[in-house]
Write a structure and sequence with these properties.
alpha+beta, Endonuclease, Chain A, Arc Repressor Mutant, subunit A, two-stranded antiparallel sheet
């Protein structure tokens, strides 16, 4: 049996810290206070079993909430599917960027077998940023990870912007099969060979998206995709530059890291998303076999890449 002062001196805490710790342990039932005010440890069997039982109850409640949440999502999806099936038109239009992007999310969530996409010039329908594939690549990766076959035709001109190349390789790494061609007519998605979704206005991806379900239109789009696919080139693998070459291409990024610039600001200055900026930093850390950003900056200084 020990007094509070003895416990405090033993673990090296201040009086305030010791009081807080003692109150917490008392509330958990791991310590008990005798009639004269001394603290004593409660036998672990007596102390821990109630804690474990409470933890088991919390886990059971969380599991039940998770099951209810999943059931609600499944029910909502079934209702949406049922209502859509009963009122499907041969063609429908979703106007505006938000509606277009919402439908692309629906494709990612509901496709059951395959999604084939022709990514024409400009951003995908509903995507405002034309120089970053982050949003659409994450959606494509999610679809592929669901076990859906995803085939994507990209323009050869993506190599003009590193951010587009980064997005393409991110999709390929997630299981999306990618090929490149010189030209494509319009953003087009062929989903499960059941319907086709195309940009409403090829010159303005913010206008919306059109969905066509007639068998003839689906067959024509599938044939066009197949002809482009047969003549397309496989996406080139990323080069493996030397550390010095790689560092030289990232001087601005390294300078911002050295100045401890926030990730949001780094992304804005590089013209990419925060996710892409963080991935580039992580890639540099891995490439040079350092453990963190500080070591990366030190390494760059030693190589003479930072003033």
């Amino acid at each position: 049996m020990s007094t509070a002062e003895e416990v405090r001196d033993f673990v090296g805490l201040t009086a305030q810290e010791a009081d807080l710790v003692a109150e917490r342990l008392l509330s958990l039932g791991l310590l008990a206070r005798s009639s004269d005010g001394d603290l004593r440890a409660v036998h672990p069997v007596l102390a821990c079993h109630p804690l474990l039982e409470r933890a088991a109850l919390r886990l059971a409640r969380q599991q039940k909430e998770l099951e209810l949440g999943r059931a609600a999502v499944d029910e909502l999806a079934a209702e949406i599917g049922a209502s859509g099936t009963s009122s499907l038109a041969e063609a429908e239009v979703h106007r505006g960027a938000a509606a277009a992007w919402s439908f692309l999310e629906q494709i990612a969530a509901t496709a059951s077998a395959s999604v084939r996409c022709m990514a024409a010039a400009g951003a995908a329908p509903g995507v405002g940023e034309t120089s970053d594939y982050t949003a659409i690549s994450e959606l494509a990766a999610f679809t592929a990870q669901r076990g859906i076959e995803v085939q994507l035709l990209l323009l050869e001109s993506i190599d003009i912007l590193p951010s587009l190349v980064d997005g393409a390789h991110a999709m390929a790494a997630a299981g999306v099969e990618i090929r490149t061609v010189p030209t494509l007519p319009v953003w087009t998605f062929i989903v499960d060979d059941e319907y086709v979704a195309t940009a409403l206005e090829p010159a303005d991806n913010q206008e919306g998206i059109m969905i066509v379900r007639t068998p003839g239109a689906v067959a024509a789009a599938a044939d066009l995709f197949a002809r482009h696919w047969r003549g397309a080139a496989t996406l080139a693998t990323s080069d493996q530059p030397t550390p010095h070459d790689l560092m030289n291409t990232h001087r601005d990024l390294l300078a911002m890291l050295a100045d401890e610039v926030k990730d949001e600001t780094i992304a804005r200055r590089l013209g990419v998303s925060k996710t892409t900026a963080r991935r580039r930093i992580k890639d540099l850390i891995c490439e040079f076999e350092v453990k963190n950003r500080t070591q990366l900056v030190v390494r760059a200084c030693r190589m003479g890449l930072l003033d």
